[in-house]
Design goal:
Order of helices and strands: EEHEHEHEHHHEHHEEHHHEEH
Radius of gyration: 19 Å
Bound molecules: zinc ion
Number of domains: 1
CATH class: Alpha Beta
Largest sheet: 6 strands, mixed
Helix content: 40-55%
CATH architecture: 3-Layer(aba) Sandwich
CATH superfamily: HUPs
Number of helices: 12
Strand content: 5-15%
Shape: globular
Number of strands: 10
C-alpha cells in the first residue's frame, strides 16, 4: 500500500475514505481536515478563546495538540473524577494532562470533584443508586456542569471536546433506536451559546476512532490506554460494537450514518430550527441554566441523591 500523495510506504489505509497515507502526510492530513471541519461548522476562530476538555485519553489530548499546532488559543480543563485507587485511573490521567500542558507551556485548569463538591463520582453514583450505567450518567452530568462553570467563569468563547465519529455514531444509534427526538435535535458538531451556556464544539466528530488512535501514536502523544473502568459493559460500548459490524461489511457506513443525519436535520426533517430552542431559566442554587423546575439536575443530585436523574444521551 502506497501513500496517495508521495508514493512512499503508507502507514494507514483508510478504506472509508479510499485513502492511504505515509506518516508525514497522515500527520498533515488530519490537522488540515480538522481545520476544515472547524470552519465548515463555524465552531470558532483564531480570535476566540477555546477551552479543551481533556481526559488524558488519545482523542482529547490529540485535539489539544492539533489546536495548538493550528495556532488557536487553546487552554485545557481536566476534571478529576476520583475514579480508581490512588495512582489509578484518575491520578494517572491527571498526570498525563499536566505533563502535556507543561511540555507545551499551555494553561490547564484542574477541578477536583471531591474537593469541590465533597464526593467522588463513584460515591455520587453509589448514593444515587442509579442501576446500570449509573456512574456514567452521574459522570456526564458532573462534567457538563463543571466544564460550563469554568468556561463561563474565565470567559472562554467555546468549549470543545474530543468526541470522534465512533462516539457520535454510537450516541446517534442509541438515540435512533429509542427515537429520542429531543436528544437528536441537540446532537450537532456545534451548539451555539445561549444565555449562561457556553458554545460547544466537537472538531473531531468526523474522524474514525482508529484514525485518532493512529494520530496519537504517530505524534508520540503520551495518553492513557485504559478505558474508564465504569465504561466496561456500558450501552455506548455495545452500540459502538454494533456500528463496527456494519462498518466492517460496508466501509464508510458509520460516516454516512452520521453525515446523512446532519444533512437531514439541516433540511428540517426533524423540526424547523426555531423550534429547537428550549425554555431555560437559572438554577436557584448554582445559577447555571436548567430546564428543570427549580434547581438543575446537578444540584438535585448533590442535595438529594436519590432523585431519579434525567438519563441523558447527549454529550
Ligand atoms: Zn506521503
Ligand atoms: Zn444548579
Amino acid at each position: 500500500m502506497k501513500c496517495r500523495t508521495c508514493g512512499s510506504k503508507a502507514v494507514i489505509n483508510m478504506r472509508q475514505h479510499k485513502l492511504a497515507l505515509c506518516k508525514p502526510h497522515f500527520l498533515e492530513w488530519l490537522p488540515a481536515q480538522t481545520e476544515r471541519f472547524i470552519k465548515k461548522y463555524e465552531m470558532f476562530t483564531r480570535y476566540e478563546k477555546v477551552l479543551v476538555a481533556v481526559s488524558g485519553g488519545k482523542d482529547s489530548l490529540s485535539l489539544w495538540n492539533i489546536l495548538i499546532k493550528l495556532g488557536y488559543q487553546a487552554d485545557g480543563i481536566y476534571i478529576s473524577l476520583g475514579i480508581g485507587e490512588e495512582g489509578g485511573y484518575s491520578d494517572l490521567s491527571r498526570q498525563l494532562c499536566e505533563d502535556f500542558s507543561l511540555d507545551r507551556n499551555q494553561q490547564l485548569h484542574i477541578v477536583d470533584v471531591k474537593k469541590e463538591f465533597g464526593e467522588t463520582i463513584p460515591q455520587f453514583a453509589q448514593r444515587t443508586r442509579r442501576g446500570k450505567n449509573k456512574a456514567c450518567s452521574v459522570c456526564g452530568l458532573t462534567k457538563r456542569h463543571v466544564m460550563n462553570q469554568v468556561a463561563q467563569k474565565f470567559g472562554y468563547d467555546v468549549l470543545v471536546t474530543g468526541h470522534n465519529l465512533d462516539d457520535e455514531a454510537a450516541v446517534l444509534f442509541g438515540n435512533t433506536l429509542h427515537w429520542a427526538g429531543e436528544f437528536m435535535l441537540r446532537q450537532a458538531p456545534v451548539l451555539p451559546a445561549t444565555p449562561g451556556l457556553t458554545r460547544k464544539g466537537k472538531p473531531l466528530c468526523r474522524f474514525y476512532e482508529k484514525e485518532m488512535a493512529a494520530y496519537a501514536i504517530l505524534s508520540d502523544i503520551d495518553y492513557i490506554y485504559e478505558e474508564c473502568p465504569y465504561s466496561i459493559g456500558s450501552t455506548s460500548i455495545y452500540y459502538k460494537h454494533q456500528m463496527n459490524l456494519l462498518e466492517h461489511d460496508n466501509p464508510g457506513e458509520k460516516s454516512h450514518f452520521y453525515l446523512r443525519f446532519l444533512r437531514a436535520k439541516d433540511n428540517g426533517l426533524f423540526a424547523p430550527p426555531e423550534i429547537i430552542k428550549q425554555d431555560l431559566h437559572e438554577c436557584s442554587n448554582c445559577g447555571q441554566p436548567t430546564s428543570g423546575k427549580d434547581v438543575c439536575s446537578f444540584c438535585r443530585m448533590l442535595e438529594q441523591g436519590n432523585e431519579h436523574l434525567e438519563r441523558s444521551q447527549v454529550n
